[in-house]
Protein 1
Amino acid sequence: MTLSGNRLYDLIRSRAPEGRRIFADLGDGRGVTYAEIEAGSARYANALASLGVAPGDRVAVQVEKSIDVIMLYLGCLRAGAVFLPLNTAYTAAEVDYFLDDAGPKLFVRDPSRSDPVRTEGGPVVMTLDAAGAGSLVDLARAQPTTFSNASRGPDDLAAILYTSGTTGRSKGAMLSHENLAANSLTLVDAWRFTSDDVLIHALPIFHTHGLFVATNVALLSGASVIFLPRFDPKQILAVMPRATAMMGVPTFYTRLLREPGLDRAAAAGMRLFISGSAPLLAETHREWRERTGHAILERYGMTETNMNTSNPYDGERVAGTVGPPLPGVELRIADPETGALLGPNEVGMIEVRGPNVFRGYWRMPEKTAKEFRPDGFFITGDLGKIDSDGYVHIVGRARDLVITGGFNVYPKEVETEIDAIAGVLESAVIGVPHADFGEGVTAVVVRRDDATLTESDVLRALESRLAKFKLPKRVIFVESLPRNTMGKVQKNVLRESYRAIYGAR
Ligand code: AMP
């Protein structure tokens, strides 16, 4: 019996379908029912309690994707602990930073990782592997299948997710039960999820997209997920006939487009394809529509705010935009320096307020205060505009803005022009230190397979399209752009690689 309320877990329970319904189809013939998820999460909650994890304690988790991780996440919610997933790519030295910063009571890692972590005075270390084995699993298996959930109110923390930290120290975004509950409910309605849905889940679960957007939306609609360890385009095509929806990053879509098997017949049973976490090229949107008959629904969010905007389910899904703000989310564009509000079609800082917005950065009250306006709007760090139809357009991260000879150049504008040149697959525009201009606009371009495009071809094509100050000073050709696991182009890596090309410091 639940003695008192647990905001997020009670909500998940209240929306769960009858227990025999499959929650996760593991793609290999095995299925995990909702009843098994309930029992498994109780076992993990009991295991956490037996290790002395109390409400409010952090549980850091750096493991491969498996259904046990979902049960552990839910077990954390039930035990009142704060779930703290870490990217599996982090090295031991990086993990040390997170363990120091977050001070978790328990650290769960893959048994194959033998690199030492500092454990003196630190957390209890337990293991869990991709196949569902490890010391924590053994402990959980021996536990009862019921648990008296810890009392957790709307403002209590459910999770801390560290931001990628490309501009300095990684920051722990504190997400409350209400942040996650409110946003997931909004998304279930906006995207019309029901218990008839079968969602392809091939995203990592250490990030907000796979952990909260995909998993919580499925749980709160009583849907099933086809739970795949990683993205493999052939496997996606193989399971698509059993699915109704997919959530992915843009690279899922570009890579699927390279599969000859992707056609209308393959996608006939699907009702919805959603993209986010990085910009989807308008061309990908168009090609996808031609091949499958489906308009990809693009949405925009971030670790700190959950989802902010979404193209409509029923209305027009406009390529190159992320749609209007979601119900309950207030979004405005402000002058980055003064905070003065800007009008339609004016580019400025995207600011958001609503029940989706996080509780601040873990143990960084000053940093947190700097990122909020006095009236409670969060300064996202993304530049964008709202068009006259109310759709939001993202221009890029503020830190990627190039300032050359005193002029602002929005990389997206230059990239859009470059991408439109025949023979260009994609591009990234960055600012590189330049003695005369401060920063020199620099284009890094990936050619299509058979293209023989040169630097002067690109510059000639741009001359009539862009003001002179926006023209790249150099065009560099590469085989591919560096991307992180969520498909984001790592402009910091590019800036570092080409730091010296103009000879300035
Ligand atoms: P993360 O916190 O890792 O989810 O990264 C959030 C950032 O990804 C946002 O602040 C945006 O810069 C970017 N982002 C997310 N969705 C989109 C989108 N649909 N289009 C463009 N950028 C996006």
Protein 2
Amino acid sequence: MHSITLIPGDGIGPSIMEAAVKVIEATGVDIQWDERYAGLAAVEKFDSPIPFETLESIRKTRVAFKGPLTTPVGGGFRSVNVALRQEFELYANVRPAVSFEGLQTRFKDVNILMVRENTEGLYSGIEHYIKVDGVAIAAESTAVITRAGSERTVRYAFEYARKHKRKRVTLVHKANILKCTTGLFLEVGKQISKEYPEIEFNDKIIDACAMQMVMDPSVFDVIVTTNLFGDILSDLTSGLVGGLGLTPGANIGKAAAIFEAVHGSAPDIAGKNLANPTAVIMAGVMMLEYIGELDAAKRVDQATKAVIKEGKFVTPDLNKTSTCGTKEMGEEIARRARG
Ligand code: NAI
């Protein structure tokens, strides 16, 4: 039996997580879910965005399945996602974007695996205002890039490429301007690439990379990049394969791993049974692979792809004329994944 911490999350979180849990349970895999709060839901209940009990649960189970969490813009509490990644040293954020058959998208053959450094860079949390007479006249933010942090993330990307027989690793940076920080990341990448002679290595500057990605995504295979660039580029790669409702992510560390969607809590569609559960279901596939339940992972993967290919039981983001909701799409995937 596997013990997994389950965090339903905010906004569309509870509905898509309910659908995903049903799909995973349909495979017959023996999982004991330890349901815990985080984010806005936790503030309302415990007056803390990350209650102690939630952290203790993840420390014990070492695996969490998490819905999206709302972070207030500007003031308010700090991002719980960033805090969880730092607390458990989840240094690699792995975000695959793969074309689905049956979807009308600009490109048909996208298969990009993004590995984003997940604990450092501009998300280090070192930020402050400079105030005169109580008025902010400036604001400063510090990006921290360490050799050790860069090494483990770049190495993860190369190890992934080796294990999955991928051809190329592209390191994305801005070392022409941010010479020290992303310069160090690039230097480490060049060094580590020498240990993997069978894998082609190249580097690209973030702006040119973004342009190339929308012109011809087939030139990208595995990408490794710093925190902020990876955050932005993985939304872009989601767009290439059909939108944010489709792409999963895994936050991997030595002590724990947290699986989630790339997207956020989507307050604009929360409570309307409109959210696409695919991204969290595919995060569930990554989680099942991580815990060694390969047969169940394959079944969920195939069931999800078949439902999308048929295009009948899909949410309106995939088919504008569809009247199918989150619940119905999840139920159809669960029906097909049943062991
Ligand atoms: P968002 O990803 O929640 O939504 C962006 C757009 O994509 C919206 O139009 C939304 O309706 C759509 N969308 C997102 N997921 C969808 C799905 N499953 N099915 C159909 N459409 C979907 O980004 P936004 O609005 O910038 O952020 C909302 C909140 O989520 C913020 O508080 C943000 O901090 C948080 N957030 C949390 C993340 C996490 O928990 N890992 C990641 C990104 C944002």
